[in-house]
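Researcher: Before we compare anything, I want clean individual predictions. No alignment, no superposition, just each chain on its own. First chain goes here; please echo the sequence and then give the structure tokens.
Model: Echoing the first chain and its structure:
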Amino acid sequence: MTEPEPAEPDAAPAPARRRVSRRTLIVGGAAAAVAVGVGVPAASFAGVLPGRSTLYRLLGLDGPAGTVPAVATGPLVQGSFRSAARLGAACGWAVSYPPGHGPGDRLPVAIALHGYSNSHRTAFGPRAHGLDAFLAQYTARGGRPYAIASVDGGNGYWHPRRSGEDSAAMLVDEFLPLLARHGLVTERLGLLGWSMGGYGALRLAGELGTGRVAAVAAASPALWHTFAQSANGAFDDAADFARNTVFGRQGRLDGVAVRVDCGTGDGFCANDRDYVSGFATAPSGGFEAGGHNNAYWLRMNPQHVAFVGRALAA
């Protein structure tokens, strides 16, 4: 499953919103083929040619696909509510408990923020991100039990919008109290996210700080340096971008366990590297073969589930 983005994530980050023509892709692909034929490493060209993600995939540079473990999962409790913060939108939600636990148990909780065009359902199940199975595997190997919850955040990039919709406020002011009513411990959270949700998790962790967030693990976060580079619809305008960018605000995550991973064949890789380099102390995670797709995210999920679990247990 490759998550749709409102603008082509393969495109080079500048100039703004540039579209790559079919002819350019053909020429670029031919150049890469020639480079390989004469013994020049294709990876050295992949960072500068258009269609980076496509090129990496075609050249087999994305590495092995991850898989959802074939394990018995715990209970999955689901529901929905009308969100005032999301202007009356119906928000579906789900909570995955580890085997041997269920509603009413006082467990720590991590929130999984979904990507663009996804929903709370994308977090769980063998045909999606499989976080319920990875959680069961983690606890079976001795990890401290915790729950993972997900909620529909729409496509607003998890921050306040000019329309008045605010999916981050929905999560904090409406969803967390709901989880507390189900017995979960919401005073200090874990955050997970991929693509749009990876950005949202990093931003929200910075807003809440170490008093509320134990750990954040972001997979392929959708990050841009400027509004002009950003995907259509991700931000209202340059002022909205300036208020909500995570660049230059890494210090807000001091005291929070941070992990950032991105595939080297991902169009966001260069920006994500720049973001990581802005920390005084390098966060966990790294950059290895992979694209902007579920094959890569499934490979990262065991490490992300364990990373957050360890922080919640500390």
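Researcher: Okay. Second chain, same rules.
Model: Second chain and its structure:
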Amino acid sequence: MNCKYNVFPKLIECRKRLFMSQRELAEAAGIPVETYKKHERGEFDFRLSEMLAIQEMLNDALQCDYTLDELFRMSKIV
């Protein structure tokens, strides 16, 4: 059975709320934009250092306290 997932919905929501491009978030994580795009599509796993940098930047910009689990959780498409 092939399950489909919405990859990182909270991460994408936060990025869009800030009107940020994938390129800007890639720069915040210190990675090439093509690598970030593959991460966001679920093709590659994020490294912990990348997740922490993104978490810190988003929480500072949004004045929130999102956990890594919240930002990087995949949700199943029904």
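Researcher: What stands out in the second chain?
Model: The mean pLDDT is 90. Additionally, The chain has five helices and two strands.
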